[in-house]
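User: Please fill in residues for this 271-position structure.
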């Protein structure tokens, strides 16, 4: 089906078809053709409708929402996909991996790892989107934590546009949080530096400025955006704020260790 095939489908039909394909890919552990073939390249609203359907199905299956993730925080990646904004996905309790834990790669399709700053919220960020200021966002953060996000695309060969990744829950799969918990009063997220090693070799590096200029900018964008969608951030939720450096492919036998200044170390292995 061509990338313009959505012109011959009404939006509800295209959304249902894309959701069914992505769910089947997730269940079978086999990638599907990019869903822009039914959604088109630019209908971001339809892609979020797909994400909402898939979220509802996971909730109905007994999973629980524990937070959100922010993607496309790098200007270079935004340029690559032809967009001027980040995207977001949902974190479920089934996606949590313990620090130092082992991931069974047979449950994944084409995984990659990236390091980032995670925020754990101590207060709700609800109400009108315009009422959510940077000061309010900072006051809502309980602690910050070093994190590794394991991303995975159900779209074949990571061949994605903005609609492909948004529909696919922002290409999320699993995440790992470090053990150190640091208050915002003790550091500035923009000043964080990061190194990521795979099997002892340095494979990625970056800093807080790589994430929308400051991970707090990403958190502010998310809080306003999801509040406008009617699904505000809540106390206790985890927010993965976006990669601080390039993501790297991972597979069986890989051990990934991220070191974030102030926030400490976090690691995960793949079996």
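Assistant: Residues filled in for all 271 positions:
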């Amino acid at each position: 089906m061509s990338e313009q095939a959505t012109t011959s489908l009404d939006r509800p039909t295209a959304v249902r078809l894309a959701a069914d394909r992505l769910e089947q890919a997730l269940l079978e552990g086999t990638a599907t053709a990019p869903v822009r073939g039914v959604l088109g390249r630019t209908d971001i609203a339809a892609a979020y409708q797909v994400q909402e359907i898939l979220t509802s199905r996971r909730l109905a299956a007994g999973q629980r929402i524990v937070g959100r993730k922010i993607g496309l925080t790098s200007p270079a990646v935004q340029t690559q996909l032809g967009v001027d904004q980040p995207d977001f996905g949902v974190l479920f309790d089934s996606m949590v991996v313990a620090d130092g834990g082992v991931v069974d790669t047979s449950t994944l399709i084409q995984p990659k790892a990236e390091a980032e700053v995670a925020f754990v919220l101590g207060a709700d960020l609800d109400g009108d989107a315009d009422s959510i200021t940077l000061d309010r966002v900072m006051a809502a953060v309980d602690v910050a934590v070093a994190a590794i996000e394991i991303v995975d695309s159900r779209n074949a060969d990571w061949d994605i546009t903005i609609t492909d990744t948004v529909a696919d829950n922002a290409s999320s799969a699993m995440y790992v949080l470090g053990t150190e918990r640091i208050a915002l009063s003790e550091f500035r997220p923009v000043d964080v530096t990061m190194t990521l090693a795979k099997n002892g070799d340095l494979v990625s590096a970056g800093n807080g400025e790589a994430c929308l200029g400051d991970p707090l900018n990403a958190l502010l964008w998310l809080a306003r955006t999801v509040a406008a969608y009617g699904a505000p951030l809540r106390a206790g939720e985890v927010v993965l704020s976006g990669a601080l450096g390039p993501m790297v492919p991972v597979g069986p036998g890989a051990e990934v260790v991220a070191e974030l200044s102030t926030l400490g170390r976090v690691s995960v292995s793949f079996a």
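For context: Confidence is low (pLDDT under 50) at residues 1-6.
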